[in-house]
Amino acid sequence: MLTRSLRSFVVVCSLALTLAEAQPMPSSYLEYDVDRLPPSVHRARRDSLMTLLGERSVVILAAGPVRVRNHDVDYQYRQDDNFWYLTGFPEPNAVLVLVPRGIQVADPADSTRRITVREVLFVEPRNPQRERWEGRRYGPEGAMSLRGFAYALSHDRMGAVLARVLMEGVEAVYCPTMRDEADEARAEVLRPVESMLERVRTRFERRDPTPTIQRMRAVKSSEEVALLRKATTISAVAHAEAMKSVQPGMREYELQAIYEYVYRRMGAEYAGYPCIVGAGENAVVLHYSTNRREIRSGDLVLADCGAEYRGYSSDITRTYPANGRFSRPQRAIYDIVLAANQAAIAAIKPGVAWRDVTAISDRTLEAGLVRIGLVKQTDGREFRKFVWHGLGHAVGLNVHDVGVDTLRANVVFTVEPGIYIAEDMEGIPPEYRSIGVRIEDVVLVTSGGNEVLSKGAPNEPAAIEALMRRSGIGNVPVE
Ligand code: GLY
Ligand code: MN
């Protein structure tokens, strides 16, 4: 791989050449983007946000930052959830400005005419030399012709346009403040915005658009449900393949590779979060992602793995025995968790408070732990020694997405009760040590109740054991 200093050298040398040479971005660039939501969907969301915030507001929102992995290597770029929701624009260093009452600009098709637009996307200009290293850029023209923005300009025009947008009649500027140090790169893009806002700050109130955008994201449209369904189907197939493939002697990361292979084979480019594959005592680490231990016969394997499909993340957990057969104590814990998962799902329908669904699961877990003698009191407290997290969460553009307190149709939640018994817990019979069980399903709330989207990954012990008698894609030797 070439170094960044060499990249910088090439970039500096080429700066003078480039802009004039920039060509419109070829639309063939979009061909790989199967199933991506059309620009009209994002535009409708921008329109809705403007309606919600009112005529006398302005919205300024920056793309997610590029994050450095080490030295001159960056992490793979992932757009910010809210920015993606409103724009579908995949590049960093972009700024969206919404002006509900409109602003006059030169018509991009005929510069002698003026048109009124309610949105401007500021983007990096085309730059053939940079694109040789970093890939195609849309540039302003591509943002308009291929991504459906009414108006787009390159960065260097942002100051001048904002000065006009903020001149008069604005009551509130909705622009998130950067709190996070990791947001340095985004803060950099917003520097001209911040200095402009500072200069004219007495004229309007500054507010955060995040809560309004998040409320919009909580209830999923039919297009979003379709993408979540696909992400979940892919994740369920990955779990089934992993169950068939796992063998004592494998490393946890080998099992992780099966999940990630299935994601990509089925069209999901990314995992929604790092795969959690914990065998034996690692199953009790909630967000374990080291994934390096050898999987041994007698271990339970807890795999919490979900694919991201076109930005939408699934989240499924299955727990299965490395050797294909649950032991008696493993099965005792498993059956309690499965009962809690099923009781919670049975209660899910519109109008029910999520708190009440959680209470049903907790009562089931507690009663089961009392039945097998690990808990003595049904006081709603002692069982917490083994139950360490809430029942679940919404999924969407973020694996831990924006939720609701009371369920309604077209919200999508996970249901993931778990019991965790660490190897060094005191007073625990030895046969129960190092057992961690979590069973997580993805549930779409429908007008009549719910639909479990993750059914393709079995969670009944007999079905898991039957599936595990088969071999999977991970059992094909690699020479
Ligand atoms: N999938 C990890 C979690 O829900 O926290
Ligand atoms: Mn989860």
Can you tell me about this structure?
The protein folds into 2 domains: 4-8 and 16-216, Creatine Amidinohydrolase, Chain A, domain 1 (3-Layer(aba) Sandwich); 219-475, Alpha-Beta Complex (Creatine Amidinohydrolase), CATH 3.90.230.10. The protein is 35% helix and 19% strand. The protein is α+β, with helices and mostly antiparallel strands and 479 residues long. A hairpin with a 2-residue loop joins strand 2 and strand 3. It starts with a helix and ends in an 11-residue tail after the last helix. It is elongated and about 80 Å long. It has 14 helices and 19 strands. The strands form 6 sheets. The chain has a 6-stranded mixed β-sheet, with helices on both faces. Strands 9-12-13 form a 3-stranded antiparallel β-sheet. The protein binds glycine and manganese (II) ion (MN).
Structural class: alpha+beta
- If you average the pLDDT, what whole number results? 92
Global geometry: elongated
CATH architecture of the largest domain: Alpha-Beta Complex
The low-confidence parts are 6-21
Note the gap between the termini. 26 Å
Helical content stands at 25-40%
Distinct compounds present: glycine, manganese (II) ion
CATH class descriptor of the largest domain: Alpha Beta
CATH superfamily of the largest domain: Creatinase/methionine aminopeptidase superfamily
For the biggest sheet, the summary is: 6 strands, mixed
Roughly what fraction of the amino acids lie in strands?
15-25%
Cα Rg: 26 Å
- The largest sheet has its strands arranged as 6-5-4-1-7-8
At the fold tier of CATH, the topology name of the largest domain is Creatine Amidinohydrolase
Task: Determine the number of helices (DSSP H or I, runs of at least 4 residues).
Answer: 14
Q: Count of DSSP E strands?
A: 19
The structural domain count equals 2
